[in-house]
Structures are given as structure tokens and as C-alpha cells.
Design goal:
The complex is a heterodimer of chains A (about 450) and B (about 180).
Chain A lengths: L26 H7 L15 H9 L1 E5 L3 H12 L4 E6 L23 H12 L4 E6 L7 H4 L4 E5 L3 H14 L11 E7 L2 E7 L22 H6 L4 H16 L10 H17 L7 H8 L7 H20 L13 E5 L5 E5 L15 E5 L5 H10 L9 E3 L4 E4 L3 H7 L7 H4 L5 E5 L7 E7 L1
Parallel strand pairs in A: 1-2, 1-4, 2-3, 4-5, 9-13
Antiparallel strand pairs in A: 5-6, 6-7, 7-8, 10-11, 10-12, 12-13
Chain B lengths: L3 H7 L17 H11 L7 E4 L8 E6 L11 E6 L10 E4 L29 H13 L9 H9 L1 H12 L3 E2 L2 E2 L6
Antiparallel strand pairs in B: 1-2, 2-3, 3-4, 5-6
Helix pairs in contact in B: 4-5
The chains are: A alpha/beta (about 450), B alpha+beta (about 180).
Chain lengths: ~450, ~180
């Protein structure tokens, strides 16, 4: 967007009645969307009202209201998006305040999602931000179906995999609206990435699982015998000493007493080996695996995510993630500055998007054994030694032997006693690289 | 907003007819463990037990070496797998107090692929083979039990005797070990 330098506060509206509609406010946005750009696709982008209305009407879900989330919410609101939702389960910690600029000292202890929502709404009249304080797993597909685009600013791989699998699972051939572009930002120190997934069309986050850097780990025996660094002493206290001396206490990394205990143990070990540098805050950092967050890395990655959201919503320029083109931008700021944008290929044997669940009609009165037999006859499967389960239940496992024994009685049971109508059955077989999934519908 | 849908429809239409599932789905971690279990090739000397057969993310591996210094012992390892699998390795612990250079008295195991060398392409079979290998070739250069490693390095016969004593539930260097004879 065209940049104008204005002294802080000039554009801030304080006259209460502004609903964000003043023409001057969106002058540059309207100019940008009011004419074709050098790279806009003339068959897709019709300058004028249509893209402007798309920005106004699009409903965007932001997952995470931390370092990236604050930047993303701010960027979206200032780009003219007016319907935002934000999910975060965390509360504000004093250590967040240096970069999570939607929060103030008085907010410490309050939920991030609601404080962030309130701040953005106050600062950007006309923009509605709906917070949800809790886990993404609390919400079902009907909830996620409401949005046009989902943007993640998360620090957890588990949460990313969950939302990815959910969005891939939601794609319904009959309903174009069910395909939700997923934009994922991530940062670690001076490094980061932004990527776009068009569920089922392009490589998904599960296809890209091995792109996550593994957590650097030191061999246990180094910790146990020849520590060389203060971190080794802390990890020794954390992994070995705690188990040995406080087995019955569950380690809570937010409990100062627990951290102090680890710190003292690490300190005495460091003295023994003449290693300087063990401090309370280093202990906290190592135990909680804290990688110092760099505000500007967050800003760069969030900016990239929001640019993509803007382009997807308006079609004003080619966006990251268009099938057959680049979908992954990595950014490295710790050795000079380097970015590389490429196409991560879809994996044909991806457990999430490789083989999407097929509908299957089953007689609730028939037995699991009959179903397993029918699998051997289905042309696409012809399974030899299948393992079958639902989310909560091991239905039948051919291997290993002990599971075979405990699940064998299920073969004689009726399907209605083992599954619910609409449940997914996942099937693996050593003869196939890929899993099969069926959505069971009772006839 | 998006031209994507027309591309979707141009794609080979999938067999899915009745829309997506609304119920709780099998997680990617569960799928991967199920796949790994279907590919497990356990020799006679190993078996798995699942305390809760519906929960495949937690199980016990029983190892009964038929050669090497730990022959005729019976060792069990707990496997705890999180929803982060295979990004994170399984957590594996020996459930007996044993005398072994690479396993400490708390049951922690020093095996590279369980920690610093874990990669998502590795599977449960690789971990299990790794554990078996530790009993066939205890390794003095990655010590977790320093005394045992020292014994192995300095005097293989003494080490052998100590293994025997410890497996019988005896006392080695002031530590009493669990009896693990089959």
C-alpha cells in the first residue's frame, strides 16, 4: 500500500462517531484496487467495487494472538478488513510486552484474544474483532466454515497439524465455500516462514512436516557424563535429576519453585565441572525451550502473511500458493539476509491430504469381520493384513500379535456396537504406502 | 474471491459423495503409529503389550535377548508417543533397574535416534531394532551408567560377571538391581 508519513496520532480518529467509512481513510486502498496492476490477471481481477467489497466482507480467522498474532491483526485491520476473529488460549505475561504491542502493563494476566480484539476495535473504528479464549480444538467444522481465510500465527506444531487436518477434512466437492485458504506464519529468532495451503489442491502442512527444524538435542550421555556448557547442566537437572529425585511431582515449567529447584541443581553441577553461566533466566529459557523472539522477524513474516491474505481476497496480484506455483517463503535473518521462495510439492502418501476419506455405506447389523473381509475384495484396497481404527477405538489390528488378540473379539461384533454413524475408519496395510479412510454411513 | 474452485472441479472428481465427516477424526499421529505398527516385524525375542488396546500411543515392549551378555533376561520398555509424533521421537524408558552402560538407574536410555538423531522418516521399527542392539552390543563410549561403562571398558570379564549378578537381582558396587531373569 502506498506509504505516507504522518506524525503519530494524526490519522487516529477520536471523534467517536467514525465507523471507518470516511473516504479519505481508504484513499490509497481504493486507488490500489481501482486499477489493474502489472501482474494482475485480467480474467480474474476486475478493478473497482468488487475487490473493495471483498476486503470489507471477507471474514478472516486469526489463530494465535501472540507475537505474530498482534502484527497480523493490526495489519489486517489497517488494510481494510473488517470482520476478524481471533483465537488464543493464553494470558498475557509481562515478558510479552516488548513486542506484543496490543498489550499494556495493566493487561498482564488477561486473556490475549480478548485484549487484542478490544484494542484493535478501539484503534480501528469499523473493524469488528470477535475473540475466543480457548483451544482451537474446542471448535467444530461449522465454526471454521464461517471464514474465508484462516491465518495462523502459532508456536505449536500440534496446533498447526490439527487445523491443517481440519481444513483438509472440510473440503466438500459440492461446496466451493468449503475450501479455506490456510496461511501459516512461523518465526524462531531471526528465522521465519510464511506459506499458503489450498487444502486438497496444494501441499498441506502435514506434507511439509519435515520442514520444521528439529529441536536441537544433546545426547543423554553427554548430559550424564561430560557436560561442557551451562545448558548441559540445566538439561541434566531437567531430564535426569528431576526424574531421580522428584519423580512423583509433575514438572510445571511455570512454577517458580520448580525452576528454582532445577536452577540450584544445575548450578551445583556447573560448579563441579567448572562451567560458568548458569543463571535463573537461562534455566527458565532452556527448560521452556524459549528461543528469543525478535520483534522485527515477527513483523516481516506477519506482513508477508497479510499481503497474501489481501491478494487472495482481492485477486489483485498473483499470490503465494496458487497451484503449480510457489507456496513457501522462507526467511533467514541470522546470516546476512536471505529469502527463498519455492514450491513444496504435495506428497501422494500424505496421511492427511494424500487419500481423503471416501464415503461408504455399511449395514449396522453386519459384523466388523464381514467388513474386513469386504476390504479384501474392494478393488482399490485388496488389503492383506489391515489395521483399522476410529479416533477413539482400535477396531481390528492384524499386527502386532498382542493387539490382534485383544481386538479379535471385535470381528464378531456388530458395526453399530463399534462405531457411530458418520465416524471415520482409518485403515493401514503393509502392502500400501498410504492409508485408506472411510466415512461410515449406516444404511 | 477465488478462482480456485474451478480448478478444483477441473481436477479429477473424487469418489467422495456425501460430504466430509463431522465426527472426531483419527489424528495424524495415530495414523502414523498405526502405519508403523502394521509394518512392525518383531522377532521371537520381542513382543508388545497394550495396557489399553484402544490407545496405540502408549504400549510396553518386552525384550528377551537370546544371545549376548543379557541372554535369558526379560526387560520391558514403556513407549509414550505424543500428538507431535513423528516430529518428536517416542519417549522410551526401561521399567527395570538394570546394570547397563547405556541405561541409567532410572531407566533413561542413551540411544541416538531417541534424541539428537531422531528424524520423522524413522519409525517405531527403527527404535525397537536400536533397543535390541543395545543389549547385543552394550557400548562403553556413550555411557549413561558410568560405572558399568568403566567396567565394560576396563575388564570385559568383570563386566560380564556384574551383568550376571545384577540380572539375578544381586548387588553391584553397592546398588541392588531388579531381578530380570526369564
Amino acid at each position: 500500500m502506498a506509504a505516507t508519513l504522518q506524525p503519530e496520532g494524526v490519522s487516529r480518529t477520536t471523534n467517536g462517531g467514525d465507523d471507518g467509512e470516511s473516504p479519505a481513510r481508504w484513499k490509497y486502498l481504493n486507488t490500489l484496487l481501482g486499477r489493474a496492476g502489472a501482474y494482475s490477471d485480467p480474467t480474474e481481477f476486475i478493478p473497482g467495487d468488487a475487490p473493495i467489497m471483498n476486503i470489507k466482507n471477507a471474514r478472516i480467522l486469526v489463530i494465535g494472538a501472540g507475537g505474530l498474532g498482534c502484527e497480523i491483526l493490526k495489519n489486517l485491520a489497517l488494510s481494510g478488513f473488517r470482520n476478524l476473529d481471533v483465537i488464543d488460549m493464553d494470558t498475557i505475561d509481562v515478558s510479552n510486552l516488548n513486542r506484543q504491542f496490543l498489550f499494556r502493563e495493566k493487561d498482564v494476566g488477561q486473556p490475549k484474544a480478548s485484549v487484542a480484539a478490544e484494542f484493535v476495535m478501539k484503534r480501528c473504528p469499523g473493524c469488528k474483532v470477535t475473540p475466543y479464549v480457548g483451544k482451537i480444538q474446542d471448535k467444530d467444522e461449522d465454526y471454521y466454515m464461517q471464514f474465508n481465510i484462516v491465518i495462523c500465527g502459532l508456536d505449536s506444531i500440534e496446533a498447526r497439524r490439527w487445523i491443517n487436518a481440519t481444513l483438509v477434512g472440510m473440503v466438500d466437492e459440492e461446496n466451493p465455500e468449503s475450501l479455506k485458504p490456510l496461511i501459516d506464519g512461523g518465526t524462531e529468532g531471526f528465522k521465519g516462514q510464511s506459506r499458503v495451503v489450498l487444502p486438497t489442491l496444494t501441499s498441506c502442512l502435514e506434507c511439509q512436516l519435515d520442514m520444521h527444524a528439529p529441536r536441537a538435542a544433546v545426547p543423554l550421555c553427554t548430559l550424564a557424563t561430560i557436560p561442557r556448557q551451562p545448558q548441559h547442566c540445566i538439561e541434566w537437572a531437567h531430564i535426569l535429576k528431576w526424574e531421580e529425585e522428584r519423580k512423583d511431582d509433575v514438572l510445571d515449567t511455570d512454577d517458580p519453585e520448580h525452576i528454582t529447584w532445577l536452577y540450584q541443581k544445575a548450578l551445583s553441577r556447573a560448579r563441579e565441572f567448572n562451567i560458568p553461566g548458569v543463571t535463573y533466566s537461562l534455566t527458565q529459557g532452556v527448560v521452556k525451550n524459549i528461543i528469543p523472539a525478535i520483534a522485527s522477524t515477527n513483523a516481516i513474516v506477519a506482513a508477508s502473511c497479510c499481503n497474501e491474505a489481501f491478494k487472495i481476497a482481492t485477486s489483485s496480484a498473483p499470490y503465494l500458493g496458487y497451484p503449480g506455483t510457489n507456496n513457501y517463503m522462507l526467511y533467514t535473518g541470522d546470516s546476512g539476509i536471505y529469502t527463498y521462495t519455492f514450491e513444496h510439492q504435495k506428497k501422494s502418501d500424505c496421511p492427511v491430504c494424500g487419500n481423503r476419506p471416501k464415503a461408504i455405506t455399511l449395514d449396522p447389523e453386519s459384523t466388523l469381520g464381514e467388513f474386513v473381509e469386504s476390504l479384501a475384495e474392494r478393488p482399490e484396497s485388496q488389503l492383506k493384513k489391515p489395521n483399522l481404527r476410529t479416533a477413539g477405538k482400535s477396531l481390528y489390528y492384524s499386527t502386532p500379535a498382542s493387539l490382534e488378540e485383544s481386538t479379535r473379539p471385535n470381528l464378531k461384533r456388530k458395526l453399530e456396537d463399534l462405531l457411530e454413524d458418520g465416524e471415520v475408519i482409518a485403515i493401514s496395510d503393509p502392502a500400501f504406502q498410504i492409508d485408506f479412510q472411510y466415512i461410515a454411513h449406516f444404511s | 474471491m477465488l478462482k480456485i474452485w474451478s480448478m478444483k472441479q477441473a481436477q479429477q472428481k473424487e469418489e467422495t459423495a456425501q460430504g466430509p465427516a463431522k465426527k472426531k477424526k483419527v489424528t495424524a499421529a495415530q495414523l502414523r503409529v498405526q502405519k508403523d505398527l502394521s509394518e512392525l516385524a518383531l522377532p521371537q525375542t520381542m513382543k508388545t503389550t497394550f495396557p489399553n488396546p484402544d490407545d496405540i500411543l502408549n504400549f510396553i515392549l518386552t525384550l528377551t535377548p537370546d544371545e549376548g551378555l543379557y541372554k535369558s533376561g526379560l526387560f520391558t520398555f514403556s513407549f509414550a508417543i505424543t500428538q507431535n509424533f513423528p516430529h518428536e521421537p517416542p519417549k522410551v524408558k526401561c521399567q527395570q533397574k538394570i546394570y547397563h552402560p547405556n541405561i541409567d538407574l532410572e531407566g533413561n536410555v542413551c540411544l541416538n535416534i531417541l534424541r539428537e538423531d531422531w528424524k520423522p522418516v524413522l519409525n517405531l521399527n527403527a527404535v525397537i531394532v536400536g533397543l535390541q542392539f543395545l543389549f547385543l552390543e552394550p557400548n562403553a563410549s556413550d555411557p549413561l551408567n558410568k560405572d558399568a561403562a568403566k567396567d565394560l571398558q576396563e575388564d570385559r570379564d568383570r563386566f560380564r560377571r556384574n551383568v550376571k549378578t545384577s540380572m539375578g537381582g544381586g548387588n553391584v558396587r553397592g546398588e541392588t538391581f531388579d531381578r530380570v531373569m526369564k
